[in-house]
Automatic annotation (TrEMBL):
<dbReference type="Pfam" id="PF07508">
    <property type="entry name" value="Recombinase"/>
</dbReference>
<dbReference type="InterPro" id="IPR025827">
    <property type="entry name" value="Zn_ribbon_recom_dom"/>
</dbReference>
<dbReference type="InterPro" id="IPR038109">
    <property type="entry name" value="DNA_bind_recomb_sf"/>
</dbReference>
<dbReference type="Pfam" id="PF13408">
    <property type="entry name" value="Zn_ribbon_recom"/>
</dbReference>
<dbReference type="InterPro" id="IPR011109">
    <property type="entry name" value="DNA_bind_recombinase_dom"/>
</dbReference>
<keyword id="KW-0238">DNA-binding</keyword>
<protein>
    <recommendedName>
        <fullName>Recombinase domain-containing protein</fullName>
    </recommendedName>
</protein>
<feature type="coiled-coil region">
    <location>
        <begin position="342"/>
        <end position="369"/>
    </location>
</feature>
<keyword id="KW-0233">DNA recombination</keyword>
<dbReference type="InterPro" id="IPR036162">
    <property type="entry name" value="Resolvase-like_N_sf"/>
</dbReference>
<dbReference type="GO" id="GO:0003677">
    <property type="term" value="F:DNA binding"/>
</dbReference>
<dbReference type="InterPro" id="IPR050639">
    <property type="entry name" value="SSR_resolvase"/>
</dbReference>
<feature type="domain" description="Recombinase">
    <location>
        <begin position="97"/>
        <end position="210"/>
    </location>
</feature>
<dbReference type="GO" id="GO:0000150">
    <property type="term" value="F:DNA strand exchange activity"/>
</dbReference>
<keyword id="KW-0175">Coiled coil</keyword>
Length: 481
């Protein structure tokens, strides 16, 4: 037997379709019961004419009632959305972000949960992923907040919920509809500041291209940063184990396994790959060189922020195109008013209006990207943070070691454009503003470039170039813009 609330629940295609479905089920030997009216349509029972007609009548009435309810609900929410857009901050629904309470028809922060949200954003911006945050919350004994029925009886946090929370614009006070329209920027009490939120979106953008188990990835500080200097594809962290030996003073030979780690082009590992970069460079050399030599140089230089300027240029260009199209639209409206080819011009006006809307959306998206970029801290601040954490890079505590490496990887992702593994067994550390430094496989500095110009003199007081005679263009020609 199939039990449903009402006949109209069997199909959204109307009463006729619902009736045909019931008859088909009956012919297949299945009874159908509707508990709204307590009626059973039995298999093998042809029934009388009124019984058959009642299926269609009930289905039609049910669908009409559902439509009316839907329209009433839409009208109610349209009114609510209009009030919110006009600045009303009343709590219109008991369903609200989990870190808020309702007092006197107003949303207020639940301080305990607000602190948890701030903690989560802090962890995420420090480089910890959703899985690790989930584990930490469960270990703290913090009960999950999800109100979804399928998670109601769970006693632990879910990856999905944390992922959604770290993207929710409600944390900065915004009210966004299901269609993505922002009605108010201060409807809810903000739980984190705008900079913190945009930093999280910047981190999420970087992490989006990185997969795999977090704990296994954590050993590599250059995850998502290392690239091939030939094909530009991602670098890979590799381990190789060698059989080694040493002789004691008494002449005893001791055999042991020696594990070394390298960075090389991931594509070049495969025979069918077009990339033929054979270089693999010791990971420990790259790590020490970047931390000990490249980062102090980055912190000592005065960096011009050309990235934000590029966003401004993009916005200005889109606005210029809007102004041109708006002028075209004004001319068309004037022509229509004078009775010139009204129908044809109206169609053209609609097309131009659509183009203006598209350009306006492009400007909004570019401004959002600019806000995310602007939220990044100054490079010297990131360098200082890395310096503070370096003592824990090789901590005996596995959790502490993992968290430290994850955080430093996140900071390096902001500081560096890439670390290129070149096919002449050099590696190039490139910063996002055009500064790059190239090193030999043993970490010896070969040369530097700033805005494409080769540097022969001192970079800064206390940082003199090593082996100036070895500076060659070949070391830099594969650096990708």
């Amino acid at each position: 037997m199939l039990v449903c609330e009402n006949v109209d629940r069997l199909s959204r295609q109307g009463a006729k379709a619902a009736a045909q479905l019931i008859w088909s089920l009956n012919e297949a030997g299945v009874d159908v019961a509707t508990y709204h009216d307590g009626h059973i349509y039995k298999a093998g029972d042809d029934g009388d004419l009124m019984d058959l007609l009642s299926i269609i009548i009930k289905g039609a009435l049910g669908k009409e009632e559902s439509f009316k309810k839907s329209e009433r609900s839409k009208a109610n929410w349209t009114k609510v959305h209009q009030e919110i857009a006009n600045g009303d901050k009343r709590a219109y629904s008991r369903q609200c972000p989990a870190w808020l309470d309702i007092e006197d028809d107003k949303y207020v922060l639940n301080e305990h949960r607000a602190n948890i949200v701030r903690l989560m954003y802090g962890w995420y911006n420090d480089g910890l992923g959703c899985l690790i945050i989930m584990r930490k919350l469960n270990e703290m004994g913090e009960k999950p907040w999800s109100s979804e029925k399928r998670y109601k009886d769970r006693n632990d946090w879910t990856y999905r919920y944390i992922h959604k929370l770290l993207q929710s614009r409600a944390v900065i006070g915004e009210y966004v509809t299901l269609k993505g329209e922002t009605l108010a920027t201060d409807y809810y009490p903000a739980v984190v500041d705008v900079d913190t939120f945009y930093k999280a979106q910047s981190v999420r953008k970087v992490r989006a291209s990185i997969g795999g188990d977090e704990r296994k990835r954590s050993a590599n500080l250059f995850l998502g940063i290392s690239k091939c200097g030939v094909c530009g594809k991602a670098g890979v962290f590799m381990k190789r184990t060698f059989n080694d030996k040493y002789v004691k003073q008494d002449g005893t030979v001791v055999h042991y396994k020696n594990t070394r780690t390298y960075l090389k082009c991931n594509e070049a590992r495969y025979k069918e790959s077009p990339c033929n970069n054979p270089a693999h460079i010791r990971y420990d050399v790259i790590e020490k060189t970047v931390l000990n030599k490249a980062l102090p140089l980055i912190a000592s230089q005065k960096h011009e922020d050309k990235v934000l300027q590029a966003f401004d240029l993009k916005i200005a260009e889109s606005q210029r195109e809007i102004d041109v199209r708006q002028k075209q639209l004004d001319n068309i409206v004037e022509a229509i008013a004078n009775g010139v080819a009204a129908k044809a011009l109206a169609q053209k006006a609609n097309a131009i209006e659509a183009e203006i809307e598209t350009l306006a959306q492009q400007i909004a998206n570019t401004k959002l990207e600019k806000d995310i970029e602007a939220a990044k801290p100054a490079k010297n601040q990131d360098v200082d943070l890395i310096a503070e954490m370096r003592s824990n890079l090789e901590s005996e505590d596995a959790d502490e070691r993992f968290e430290t490496r994850a955080r430093i990887n996140s900071l390096l992702s902001r500081l560096l454009r890439a670390v290129y593994i070149n096919d002449d067994r050099t590696f190039t550390v490139e910063v996002d503003d055009g500064f790059s430094a190239t090193y030999a496989a043993d970490g010896t500095a070969i040369g530097y470039r700033v805005a494409g110009d080769r540097i022969v003199g001192a970079m800064d007081e206390g940082f003199l170039l090593e082996d100036k005679d070895m500076i060659i263009d070949e070391a830099f020609k594969r650096v990708r813009a």
